[in-house]
Amino acid sequence: MLLYEKNPDGFTIIEILVAVAIFSIGLLAVAFMQIKGIHSARTSREKTEAMTLAETQAERLMAMKFYLDDNKVDDDHNGETDFYDANPGLAPGSFSDDTEWTGRFKVNWTIVDNTPLPAVNGLAPFPVTRSKTITLWVSPDESPGKMLINIQFVKVGISRF
Questions:
Q1: Is residue 84 part of a domain?
Q2: For a Cys-Cys bond, which of 33, 68, 127, 133 suits 85, CB 3.0-4.6 Å?
Q3: Burial 62-76 (b: 16+ CB within 10 A, else e)
């Protein structure tokens, strides 16, 4: 005695469950790819914004005059007539600027004087630094230890000495 009659036109419940399981696995794979794609697009956008900020700050630093010409006035009050004044914007040290970048990024840079040239009588009676190494990096505000972009360049001072 048969409990059920085989119908060649339909599917059994097992066949339907297997098909649904295979379809679900494929759908999960597509959803995972979408999530990864959205994450990659966000990371790419962040790095592009950080690179733009780094390039903007690098251009600002490169556009600064290496030395300021003060027409031989003792404005640093050291008792000597100055032949030049070092630009305070290019003073050695570590600096950061997070005011302009909508609070999302922090732009940091360090400036190091390279080996100064020795004093030469008649031209420069004091050692003259002719180049500075500038290292610039951008990090997100929420994780300051994470460096998105790092740029290093040398600024060369061309003067009359």
A1: yes
A2: 68
A3: eeeebbeeeeeeeee
